[in-house]
Write the C-alpha cells for this entry.
Amino acid sequence: MKLRILVLIALVLLPAASLYAVGDATGRGDPIPLGRLVAELPRSAEKVTVRMTTHYYAGGLFLRKSGDMFLVVRPPTGAVVRSQPRSAVRVRAHGVRFYYHDGFFYRRRGSSKFEVVPGPAGAVVRSIPVNSRRRVVAKREAWWYAGVTYRPFQKSGRTLYRVMGL
C-alpha cells in the first residue's frame, strides 16, 4: 500500500523534464494524458493567452496553472505558438497544409508561427489517439476525439482515418 501511495505521489509531482521522457503518440512512448498534473514548467515553455485564459506551451504540450501545479490540457483552438510539436506530421486537406499531432491540428501562420485549428474536413491521418471513442455515424464506424470525428478506411492494406466535416 505504501508503495502505491509513493508511486501516485511521484506521478502527480512529475518534474517538467520528465514530460519529454514519457514520449508522445509517435510510438516512442505513451502520450502524456490530458489532466496530468506536473510540478513545474519546462524552461522552454512559452506563455500563450487564448480567450483571456493563460496557457503555457512546450514541446507539443499545453499546460494551465492549477493551484501550485500545472495541468496538461488540450490545445486551445486559436492558440498561436512558435513551433508545431516536433513529432507532428504534415497532412493536406483541400490543398492546404496542416500539421497533425496526437489528435490536434496546427496550421502555419506567417513565416514562423503555428495556430491550433479545428480538424479540417477531408484530412487523412495514419493514426488517432489511443483514447478515441468508437461511434456509429450514418450506420458506419467512426471514431471521435476532442471534437473531431474520424472515419476509418482501407488503402493498400492499411487503415487510415479521414476527418469528417461538422
